[in-house]
Amino acid sequence: MPRHRRAAPWQIGDLFTHEREAAAYEAAVDACLAEPAVARRLGKRPQATAENVRAHMLSEANVRRALEPCREHHLRFRAALEQYQAARTRVDYLHDPPAPATIALALLSLVLLVALVTAPWTGVAVAAVPPVVLGAVVRTHPLWRMRVHNNVGELVLRAALFVRQRQAEHADRRWRRDLQVNGVRPLMRRVVEALLGDDHDSLLLPDSYEGLRSPRSRQYVVGNEASRRLARKVAQLRGGTIAVSGPRGAGKSTLLETCAAEADFSVVVQAPATYSPYEFLLSLYIRVCETYLKDEGHEVPEFARLSAFRRALLHVVPAARRVTRHLLFAASAGALVVLGLAATARSMEDRYEDTVRERAGEVWSQLTRTLEGIWGGERAGAALAVTLTGVLIWRLRRWPGTDELLRNVRLLTGGVGGVALILVAPVSLFLDTDIRRNARVLVTESFGALGVLLLVSLLTLSLAALKGQDVGLWPGSGFLVTDRVLKAAMGLLLVVVAVLLDQTPALYALAADDDNAFRVACVLLGVLMARAGAWNAPQPEPRLVRECRDQLYRLQTVQTTSAAVTAGPPQLLSAYTSSLSTVPPNMPELVADFRELLADIAQERFARDGRVVIAVDEVDRLGSDAQALEFLGEIKAILGVPGVHYLISVAEDVGASFVRRGLPHRGVTDSSLDDIVHVQPCTLAESVELLQRRAPGLSEPYSLLAHALSGGLPRDLMRYGLRIMEIEDKTRFVELTDISRQMILEELSETMAGFRTLLGKHEWTPETSATLLSFRSLMGHLRYLCPCPSAELQKALQHVAFYDLEEQLGTDAAANVPEATRLLIDEASAYVLFSLTLLDVFGRPDFARRREAARRHGPDGDPEMLAQARQELELSPYSARPLITAVRTAWGVASRPAAGTVTTIPAARRSPCTLHAQPV
Fold this sequence. Notes:
Rossmann fold; two-stranded antiparallel ribbon; 39 helices; flat
């Protein structure tokens, strides 16, 4: 056994009995310290270091806590280790150099083994000689008897010691694995969290964020209430049109793609921004035909701009190459088989030709006499049977199971005949006297050669059975059985067979038996019959496949047919030519053909318990709700196909039009849509689940921050989640206060730049231009961003967040501000107030304690209210401001500054922060 370093005294005491137990515990601690989930957290705060974590894990109390969950495996390992040590002690006690009698016994045993392998009967005859001679020698020398007894006992104990050692190692591995997974790892996680402090969740330490980098990947899709509601509606309806309504970024496209992917047949198309109903239907028709051909395993026809000769070459050359290759191998193999079996075929012909001719003549005479009797009217019963058989055969042409019956008869006949011929070869081996005689000679005189052949054959068969598996006597000692290993074993088998055939006359006589060629011919003929019985003729293309291919040719090509006729006497030749060109289908014809094809596909899929889904996405990007409703009215003709589910993503305006159907008048949605699913922004729990799926290990405060900034919209939620990772990668910040301030101020800077651009398009006077100067001053404060708290920035944000036109411009000047300009100023002011609130909530230390205090305050302290305030900003700044004020009150932030404290904006800094010199 390998030796380990001696453990410290505290490790031995009452906790561990053996040194290996303490070493296993220390190894588990080191392994858990090296895990990425723990290593990322070490060094982020002063107390959370590897040395401190190790010291806490090695304390007696924590060792007891780590050992408790895996006590059962620990006791098993201790018992196995004690048994191994006891066996090791006995072996050391009995250890004695081998005596001459022991060496003689070993040599005689080896000679006996060789004799048994090479000459079985001779080995059996002399098997009793060595024990008799050795017993006589031992009896005459008592000292030799004692030493032989000790040597034999030591040998037996060493075998038992080997078993005990393997048991101890196995128990050691199981206990180490259990100790690391169920004991040390959970405890170390708690120790690291304790060393990080009470607010350890404010550290940004995700395991991965690959899901945020692939927002369209379906492997990260998380189900929500909208997806479950859509699945229920699709399951309840036999077919129909379901609209998916919601704000942009709410996940409508993902919902449609997920539902379409679960269907048996689905097509997802995008609504064109500048649409033409005819072109849209034509494109959808082509997509349906192409998708059906691919689903059925058929190739989509290509309409390449090549000459007829080049297109023929593209099809002929690969086919000719395949045929040439097959003919080359078939000719070579057939020539060799014919050459090898020619003599056997001639001997079979000479032996059975007269018998076969005689039997065939008798059958033919009987058949002709029967037919002549029926034709002459002498066999009335046979004539009636033949007539009924003919009628039955004629009726079978309409029976749907005729082809299946014929195929089964052919399969049964070919299979039974082929298996019978294949079994002739092994059965004939037992009936052949020469084979039996040579087999007896091989067993009695060449037992060693036969044993080697069987051993190599068994090895090859075992490797073939274990192909693709890891083979070894114990874990970690095996090798993977690959094709290369199997080919090497088969090559070894061929070499062994060749050598044995050359060196073993009996084996050569078995292989060169005169009837072996006949047996090989029977096996080959049986295989051919079985293959012929199982062969199926190429089936004609299904009707729908043929129709889809025809429609593709019709919709994507212009077909022209020309004919020339020559008339008149030979002296005067006249040429008359005519041409026929197809006309593209018009809109009504296109709609009728498309509905018919789609109905046939739906009927076929419904027979398989399948579902047909046509998803039309991006209808909400057509512009206004009037354009979307007009689009629905144009494509209404293709909706309502029996058995087909149409899923259409629409904007909230169209969804609202469907909800208020009939009040006070009916719209196009009443007759176009059968139902609607409203996709709402994610709740806080759904946002946390989505981010955990895409960025495992992301702590909850960062999920709350992304949820508040996005308002629960999945698209923005993933964008802000990726923005958090981008800031961490750029600045190396890991604290919530630093990352949140940097992120919120960057978002505010970009948004305020957009507001200032919009304000610049309005009319201003010298009396009202002070408002633009206020926004310009705020942008100056946002020029050099850093996470450091700044009183000047706080005052600038408060100035704009609580901006009062009358107080800043005066009553007369404020009255001259247009209503549209005033609304834009109020929107910008409300957004600044929202950003200021986020800074007060997430940008201050001790987030966990303040969150608990806000929760006790009431419903306004729920972080969900921040997302609702963000959603309300999209509707009206006037309804959003009371929500933001209530949130500020719940989180212990002043609702508004004292009067007169933020009448002006202080001067902005003119250089970057000294701690964060790089501008971002």
